[in-house]
Design brief:
heterodimer; A: 330 residues; mainly alpha; MetI-like fold; 2 domains; two-stranded antiparallel sheet; 2 strands; 72% helix; 1% strand; globular; B: 286 residues; 11 helices
Chain lengths: 330, 286
């Protein structure tokens, strides 16, 4: 490892000698050993992190092994979830997770990019602070409080005011109004929750773009929006996609708020006003009460799937955000 | 000809104004749910915010005056367990990443810290269940604290790395030039300089895990009484809010709102405190 203060002439175990020079040598040789202990300590602590990630992957795989063995490939392709008959298929939950996350992304994506632009490009530092405070407060609110608000404020509001309007829209998505506890409500609440993530990453990406690029666009006579479009949005497209993927990762794993507003009925329906269920909320609702090993294993398998998906999404997002930062730097 | 050019300019100016307006509208749209949430938590939580809430155990429906005292203490206990496990590992790992972090191993660690912090919290709960609840044959505060510590470690490591990196290289060189061994220069000079930043990170991490619910559902579980030990199911503010919120009883739902108000005040106070220390640090650096 890098050790700048180690002296090359130290020889461990050398006999103490009377001369002054050798004394100096002995006292010097004592120094790097303290360094080595400290470096070992901090490196050991750092090593815990990959170890934990590996242990998590391994343990989840082991826990879901029974399920994969018993259910076979049908676990991924069927939608019956029957703990009594021990038949498990994750499709309905996967649909709920994907659909609610998609709704969340469709709302949080444009709004998040817009706010990030407003903060980085279109405002004075004074207002920047206020906007940053709004977003930071949003990100600090616990998931369970979003759930509480979603259940008692958002869902009744959707039932009373939004759903009666939406049912007039033709097409498969808004067929029949329900209780307000629905895929749509869950998606919107999660959208509010991932807004800070999308916004923060977009802001980082926009800030990485040199001011000179905006200035050259403005000097060529473009309006401020055109300058932003050409000099900020265009070069940061991969970064924006990265931000959206990171938001998607958070949306997929969001548990409490979804559990409280999605209605918890595992059905695949294109009607967004119908209740649904998600991978995370199935685990949250059933894990503590699961009696049979098969049921536990099936729930662990849901977690395993969720873990793999979010891990892959995170990797992809990091690569994209890095790509932008590097391209701008070179 | 000139007229046409003028028209194009008007159109461009209009698009400019429209798009800038839309960006600001985004902020307004984000404000509506935030303000509604804060307003509702305060107004609906306010009238049960009394001494009973802090002093009493949960009571059955029909008996007035039930509180969440055990859940408050339980939350503190769980965060304390998580801190004991997570804070030393996180801070030391962060110091490693900042001071010895130019190699492949550090890159790997950083990558997995990102992976770990992206893992859904409910999955962390399953992991803690397999690792602690199953061998101990029961839900326990220890398992809950362990699950929370898993979320703390990557968070603290990244924040610590960031603030330790901010310490100017000149300070390290000055210490080394005095003949101090590297580890002493890191501990007594670099880390001490970054101390308030690290403390802010620890506070943020503790707040973050204190507001978690999902990993506790089947690790610490819940308990309507005082826990008699770390190996017993332990109530927490968040799980108790969840339990009461989904109950069909108006009384319990009211208490859930009050719990939400207390939790929200703690969280916002902590984030305010960390904001203040951060801005104070910036002033010192300038």
């Amino acid at each position: 490892m890098s050790s700048t203060v180690t002296t090359p002439e130290t020889s461990p175990g050398s006999a103490p000698a009377p001369s002054f020079g050798n004394n100096l040598k002995a006292s010097r040789s004592a120094l790097p050993s303290g360094d080595r202990v400290f470096e070992g300590l901090v490196a050991g602590a750092a090593g815990v992190i990959p170890l934990l990630a590996a242990a998590m992957l391994l343990l989840l795989a082991v826990a879901s092994w029974t399920c994969f063995q018993e259910q076979g490939f049908g676990f991924f392709t069927t939608q019956d979830w029957d703990p009594v008959k021990e038949h498990f298929g994750m499709l309905a939950f996967a649909y709920g997770t994907l659909a609610s996350s998609a709704i969340a992304l469709l709302t949080a994506g444009p709004i998040g990019v817009g706010i990030a632009l407003a903060i980085t490009e279109f405002t004075k530092p004074k207002y920047r602070e206020i906007a940053a405070w709004v977003v930071e407060t949003l990100s600090a609110i616990p998931s369970v409080i979003f759930g509480l608000w979603g259940m008692f404020v958002m869902a009744p509001f959707m039932r009373a005011h939004i759903e009666p309007l939406l049912v007039h829209i033709p097409g498969p998505f808004f067929r029949e109004a329900g209780t307000g506890l629905s895929l749509l409500t869950a998606g919107l609440v999660v959208g509010i929750m991932i807004l800070p993530t999308v916004m923060a990453v977009c802001r980082e990406v926009f800030n990485a773009i040199p001011i000179s690029m905006r200035e050259s666009a403005l000097a060529l006579g473009s309006t401020r929006w055109e300058a932003v479009r050409l000099a900020v949005l265009a070069p940061s497209t991969p970064g924006i996609i990265g931000a959206l993927i990171l938001g998607m990762g958070r949306a997929l794993g969001e548990t409490m708020a979804v559990t409280m507003v999605i209605g918890n009925r595992a059905e695949i329906s294109t009607n967004l006003l119908a209740p649904s269920d998600s991978l995370a909320s199935a685990i949250a609702n059933q894990f503590a009460e699961a009696a049979s090993p098969g049921h536990l294993s099936a729930l662990a398998a849901l977690g395993f799937v969720l873990f793999l998906i979010t891990m892959l999404l995170n990797m992809a997002a990091r690569l994209l955000v890095w790509a932008v930062a590097n391209r701008v730097r070179h | 000809m000139a007229e046409n050019l003028f028209k194009v300019d008007v159109k461009r100016a209009r698009i400019d104004r429209l798009m800038r307006g839309l960006c600001w509208a985004g902020l307004a749209v984000a404000l509506v749910p935030l303000l509604s949430l804060l307003f509702m938590v305060i107004t609906r939580g306010w009238h049960r915010l009394d001494l009973d809430f802090f002093m009493h155990l949960p009571r059955p429906v029909g008996i007035p005056g039930g509180g969440m005292s055990n859940a408050l203490v339980g939350s503190i206990e769980l965060v304390a367990i998580a801190s004991v496990i997570g804070m030393p590992i996180g801070v030391l790992a962060g110091i490693f990443l900042a001071e010895y972090g130019d190699n492949r191993f550090a890159k790997t660690v950083r990558f997995y810290a990102d992976v770990l912090s992206g893992v859904p919290s409910i999955v962390t709960g399953i992991f803690a269940y397999q690792l602690v609840v199953k061998p101990m044959h029961g839900f326990s505060g220890l398992a809950g604290g362990f699950a929370l510590s898993l979320m703390m470690i990557p968070l603290i490591a990244r924040i610590t790395e960031e603030v330790v990196r901010l310490v100017p290289t000149g300070l390290r060189e000055a210490a080394l030039a005095l003949g101090v061994p590297r580890w002493r220069s890191i501990v007594s000079v670099v880390v001490r300089t970054a101390m308030s930043g690290i403390a802010t990170g620890l506070l943020l991490a503790a707040t973050r895990v204190a507001s978690e619910t999902a990993p506790l559902l089947f690790t610490a579980f819940n308990n309507q009484f005082w826990p008699s030990g770390l190996n017993q199911p332990t109530a927490s503010l968040t799980v108790q809010i969840f339990t009461y919120a989904i109950s069909p009883y108006q009384e319990w739902q009211d208490v859930a709102w009050t719990g939400a108000l207390v939790l929200l005040m703690m969280v916002l106070l902590a984030s305010l405190a960390s904001r203040l220390t951060v801005s104070k640090n910036r002033q010192i650096q300038l």
